[in-house]
Amino acid sequence: MPRRRNKKIFPVLIIFFIISFILTYFVNKQALPLLEYYAENQGISTATAIINEAVKETLGDNSYDSENFVNYEKNESGEITAINIDTIKLNTLKASLTYDVIESLKKIRDTPVNIPFGTLSGIGIFYGKGPDIHINLIPEGGVTSDIKTDFYSSGINQTVHRIYWEVNTDFSVVLPNKTISFSVPCRFLLSETVIVGEIPKVYFQNQGE
User: Fold this and answer.
1) What is the pTM of this model?
2) What span, in angstroms and rounded, lies between the C-alpha atoms of 50 and 26?
3) DSSP E strand stretches across 56-178
4) Helix, strand or coil for residue 137?
5) CB-CB neighbours of 49 under 10 Å
6) Which strands form 179-196's sheet, in the order they lie side by side?
7) Cross-strand pairs, 138
8) Which residues pair with 149 in a beta bridge?
9) What pLDDT, on the 0 to 100 scale, is given for residue 174?
């Protein structure tokens, strides 16, 4: 009897080890790399959406007016001789935007990143199917932001002057095998003006009330 039992158990053990090997290989070579890829991409999408919503609310405030940031000085011929940027107002807006983004990111822990299990198979027909794998998106460190200005040609004798607000935030997602860190840079247009004629030699001067 013991010999017969051993004969029956041995094939079962062989099958068990084969299945375990296949599953381990699948997880290490297929599932985990895809999990890392989708976790980072979903994390970036989620963070970007939250940042965009926070900025949208601030810029949608009635007190915001892009025309208040820039003053164009002209000579008697109507040519622009200087571009004065009100850095006080811009820095006030920058501080307000940064604060709103930081406050919004505090809620991000309550917004898990969901990845369908079927997506990790790498098989098209299973994409987006199966139970969700919940991954927490964690803000790391602070939020850095800056005001940028640039000029570019938009046609014959025309130049576009733009002012941007750039913000960069760092995040991480905790996976079963590692923690992935990544940055989410965003850029928002604050002001845009088309200048007809030559760009003035004095194109940036600080001013404030």
Assistant:
1) 0.69
2) 34
3) 70-74, 80-86, 113-116, 132-135, 137-155, 158-174
4) strand
5) 11
6) 137-155, 158-174, 179-196
7) 172
8) 163
9) 78
